Amino acid sequence: MNGAVRAVVRAAIAKGCTPYAIYEGYQGLIDGGSMMKQMRWEDVRGWLSEGGTLIGTARCAPFRERWGRLTAAKNMIVNGIDALIVCGGDGSLTGADLFRSEWQGLLAELVSTGELTEEQVQGHEHLTIVGLVGSIDNDMSSTDATIGAFSSLSRICQSVDFIDATALSHSRAFVVEVMGRHCGWLALMAGIATGADYVFIPEQPPNSQTWGDEMCAIVHAHRKKGKRKTIVIVAEGAIDDQLNPITAEDVKLLLVNKLGLDTRITTLGHVQRGGSAVAYDRMLSTLQGFDAVDAVLESTPETPSPMIGITENKICRKPLVESVALTQSVATAIKNKDFQKAMALRDTEFEEYYRAFLATTIIDDESLKVPEEKRLKIAIVNVGAPAGGMNAAARAAACYCLSKGHTPYAIHNGFTGLARHDSVRELNWLDVDNWVIRGGSEIGTNRNLPDVDLGMVAYYFQKYSFDGLMIVGGFEAFISLYQLEQARVNYPAFRIPMVCLPATISNNVPGTEYSLGSDTCLNALVDYCDVIKQSASATRRRVFVVEVQGGKSGYVVTYAGLCVGALAVYTPEEGISLRTLENDIVHLRESYAQDEGQNRAGKLILRNEKASKVFTTEVIGDIIREEAKNRFDARTANPGHLQQGGIPSPMDRLRATRLAVKCMQFIEHNQESDIDQRGLAPGSASVIGILGAKVVFTGVKYLYDHETELQNRRPRKSFWTTMKTVSETLSGRPPVSV
């Protein structure tokens, strides 16, 4: 929430508006006075790294009454306010839209009773409302994510990861209760991201008579395979199909009495709400807050109140009233036992994740397997540098294959391992079960391409009769897929469906706006930069120049700059000039001159490792130090390979699972592709990616020919350039004069 407030305040000032912070929610509107504070640029410095909400929040019964809204309207007019950006749940947003619908009537009553004059209300005849959804439950329809949801999920996953070690050591079962009264998003996503054995969510309640047997059958099957630990995640609103509550204690008793497992209960409680926001929530709140100000300025009296949401990677505006109605109808559908409708009212991504979870946890169910003649041999290989989520992708692909009756193979140590050492190993369920939480690459990876020995690669493809291939990795994986596709003319073994799942911290693979590992990298950078900024702030007048990886793509440095509130960001696409440095040093001088000894005065400049051959990180630090004339100091910092992250972030684990399952389905569906005159199927070699609001498969040849800058190892179009504009606007960085 603090990221959203910061973005709204600074975007409003940058666009010539006057921002106010209303303290303690709607109660602040009713109380007025000091509870409605005009905000300055400096007031929100350092807010990105703060947890909770620094302007407070509270439930407000008086605002539900007309007299309360009447008082709120008066206080707004007295302060010249006629637009509200509300960050909260469906109740807060519903109240805001009601306030808007009554606005003219409230003003008329205030004038008629003499509380306000005609002159005071003139120019404020219409109230503009824009909604931002702040909810850890992620329970708002029409958006894929709400502000705070991924931070909460991160706390849950971290806790379960820690519990995992104890469960494994003692061969115990743990029942973990998480928040979510009417929405199972946290429970489901935590189940996927931690490799839980079973989850209970309100949208998909089990049969009231058989749910205990079903759960115990799955847990027993996992134990029979050799698994030493059991994790069951229960949403606090979990129910059976007769709406009877399912509690953590109920689950524990079954695991103890039916399976004889030593079982413990952990209720995470309000630890799920605490802590600093993760990188994704900082990005989401900043972009949505920035867009909310634009929505206010573009609004007309006839425009329906918008809710700022996100679909896949695209910030979007949805009608607020409709979104709230859809959200509330989920609870109604559950109450009416219409669970199919409840699932349908959630976004399509939710249902895909649910099916992906089932595919990775249900094993040896013959009813799910395809006929013998349609069972495939599918290979998985990692190519390029390690990235968070690689193991989760391999696990999801292998588990999906096993659930369908296919045979998954891992090619260890990339194409070099295959060509030189015949490094093909069949994967079983127990091998991969615990991979979801592991960083690095369990099957190894390197940067060598298939052309290290195409003949031997083709030989082993033919030897093992592979029916499909998933390549997980960065730009090298993309080029590997292209080489294999081009070699189909000479090597029939490559005439199989092949797909590249992008995984690289640089996020520089054509055909996608998201790569596995990029979120883990951003979180590592955010944590690192928060510590660095704290050091810089402690000395009051110090700027750190931080070197960021990313090759010749400015994605990571730009997003990191947005998430940590960097004063300036240097990308390889724009480079660094003397004029740019001069401009930023002047800005630094002015910024420190205006600080007036305030705290949180540390500054960060982020520089991509390839931004300039001449102006290195050390050189920039020296130049700033020299030009500062003892008014402030400069230091340099290089997080290095720390940026590859340790344990993958929940987002990378989740998307790895979802996208890997889609890759397997792509391979299944392309077994009978349209064949051209050369005996090839051009569309059967594709890159899976998230583009805007969609998950898409794009042919690798098209991407190679039309959307790739080969010499710079990046896409021709940089989708993230608008993020740099937002980042610079909110940091106050002035444009460089030509």
Give a description of the structure.
The protein has 738 residues and is α/β, with parallel strands linked by helices. Helices cover 44% and strands 15% of the residues. The strands form six sheets. Strands 13-12-11-14-15-20-21 form a seven-stranded mixed sheet, with helices on both faces. Strands 3-4-9-10 form a four-stranded mixed sheet, sandwiched between helices. Helix 21 links the parallel strand 17 and strand 18. It is globular and about 85 Å long. The chain starts with a helix and ends in a 7-residue tail after the last helix.
What's the topology here?
Blueprint: H1 2-14, E1 20-22, H2 26-31, E2 36-38, H3 66-78, E3 83-88, H4 90-112, H5 118-121, E4 128-133, H6 149-170, E5 173-178, H7 185-194, E6 198-200, H8 211-224, E7 230-235, H9 248-259, E8 263-267, H10 279-298, E9 306-311, E10 314-319, H11 320-335, H12 339-345, H13 348-361, E11 377-383, H14 390-404, E12 407-411, H15 414-421, E13 424-426, H16 429-432, H17 454-464, E14 468-473, H18 475-486, E15 498-502, H19 518-538, E16 542-548, H20 555-564, E17 568-570, H21 578-595, E18 603-608, H22 617-628, E19 633-637, H23 650-669, E20 685-691, E21 694-699, H24 700-706, E22 708-709, E23 714-715, H25 721-731
Parallel strand pairs: 3-4, 4-9, 5-7, 5-8, 6-7, 11-12, 11-14, 14-15, 15-20, 16-18, 16-19, 17-18
Antiparallel strand pairs: 1-2, 9-10, 12-13, 20-21, 22-23
